[in-house]
Amino acid sequence: MTYGHFSTIHPGHIRYLRNARTLGKKLVVALIGDEGDSFQFNQQERAEALSLLGLADGVLLLNADELSDAINKLQPTALVLGNEFQQQPMIQSRLSLQRRLGGSVHFHAGEVHYASTELLTGSEGDLQAKRNSQFSAACKRQGIDQQQLLRSMDCWSSTRLIVLGDTIVDQYAACEAIGMSAEAPVVVVRELQQRNFIGGAAVVAAHIRALGAQCDLVSVVGSDSTAKLVKDELADQQIGDGLTIDPSRPTTFKKRYMVENQKLFRVSRLEEHNLCAAVESQVIKQLEIMAPKAKGIVVSDFVYGMVTPRILEVLQQLAQKHKLMLFGDLQCSSQVGSVTRFQHFSLLCPNEREARLALQNKESGLEQISQQLLQQSHCERLVMKLGSEGFIAYDRNAEGQLINQPFPALSVNPLDVTGAGDSLLAVMASGLASGQAMMPTAALACCMTALAVKTMGNTPISADSLRRSVQEFL
């Protein structure tokens, strides 16, 4: 038996229930009632959502949270609770009852996986239909319809944003595999063609501009030919150029070698030291010039030394002075960093691995991780990215209570996931800065990421493409 309120079913709950199911022949969920609590959905709706998962053999409806009565009634072989219950004194007597009746007690939030195995258990068509259905159900639950989403994009053109962070140039080299080297056990390839894409903070700015909003980029580049490529691209896309040249570092450059759309490896050319005081002051000057005209600042930090503690302090001062929203994404897959350094932001968009690294917590359930991050960062809203499982959007209702809604990954078999998070950040910032509500913006971001992973490389996605995507999925 498992126990909880399951206010909104998301991937964390599914992991928990799948783990519990392995401990016995039948699984029953004891579902907390509506009495004395104000959940986002009533007990009947929550029970129906649990039933649709197909993981539980039965749902026991409690009037309130009478777990002792449920244990006496069912006498389960195993009682499985989330890790957050371990330190709750009030539940200890109920656990003692379970043990006196001969049953065991397990605390487990389910296994954490950062990759999907769904394609091993179902066809691509079936999985696509399932995810489309999940997306439609999420929108229906939040009272979102197609026309509402399409209309909400019309006001983006009056929104101006500043994007601050590390500029990256991504080069993709298409190669032909020749064979194995005779001198060493390495694959030999012949380079056929190459193409450059702006990435990092620059592609976030490019997405925002392509979606119709106005945008300025504040970043640091080197004194090299790669920097000229970035400047030319910004000019072509009519993005405000707030670039500062730092002679002590090259423009960050990443080259990916590919054979038949499969990436072999990546070579990076970069420096990770913090900005010197002179360059840092130039960046701050650019921010101060641009801030009065903006509605928000988007921080895309790859932890290469661009976003310093002093710059973060200035961001807070500018946000208070000009009533700006702050949006943050910190990527530390191969670097040392913590998203909790972004304090009092309007929105944070970490993935699960980044959140667990920041909190030094690999045991707690997904819901507990999300709430812990919200508390430690004091941010208003959160998007917890889950890769192939989609993401969970967290917001607060009119009473200040935390609510959440999971959205699926609409692309079952993506071509290139590089930059999916950048496209999501661009939509969330454009929508929220223009006064749009959190959940409709998250629905648009869900459609946006499905487009971003369909093409190889970071290509800015236009507002028309996003509108067509919304019409396709709703």
What layout of secondary structure does this protein have?
Elements: E1 2-4, H1 11-21, E2 28-31, H2 43-53, E3 58-61, H3 67-74, E4 78-81, H4 92-100, E5 104-107, H5 124-141, H6 146-152, E6 160-165, E7 167-180, E8 187-200, H7 201-210, E9 214-221, H8 225-236, E10 240-245, E11 252-259, E12 262-269, H9 277-290, E13 296-301, H10 309-322, E14 325-330, E15 347-348, H11 352-359, H12 366-377, E16 381-385, E17 391-396, E18 402-407, H13 420-433, H14 438-452, H15 463-473
Parallel strand pairs: 1-2, 2-3, 4-5, 6-9, 6-13, 7-11, 9-10, 13-14, 14-15, 15-16
Antiparallel strand pairs: 7-8, 11-12, 16-17, 17-18
Question: Any overview of this molecule?
Answer:
By secondary structure, the chain is an alpha/beta fold. The protein has two domains: 2-111, Rossmann fold; 132-167 and 200-251 and 277-473, Ribokinase (UDP-N-acetylmuramoyl-L-alanine:D-glutamate ligase), CATH 3.40.1190. Helix content is 37%, strand content 24%. The chain has helices spanning 11-21, 43-53, 67-74, 92-100, 124-141, 146-152, 201-210, 225-236, 277-290, 309-322, 352-359, 366-377, 420-433, 438-452, 463-473; strands spanning 2-4, 28-31, 58-61, 78-81, 104-107, 160-165, 167-180, 187-200, 214-221, 240-245, 252-259, 262-269, 296-301, 325-330, 347-348, 381-385, 391-396, 402-407. Strands 10-9-6-13-14-15-16-17-18 form a nine-stranded mixed sheet, with helices on both faces. A four-stranded mixed sheet has the order 8-7-11-12. The chain has a three-stranded parallel sheet with strand order 1-2-3, with helices on one face. Strand 4 (78-81), helix 4 and strand 5 form a beta-alpha-beta unit. The radius of gyration is 24 Å and the shape is globular.
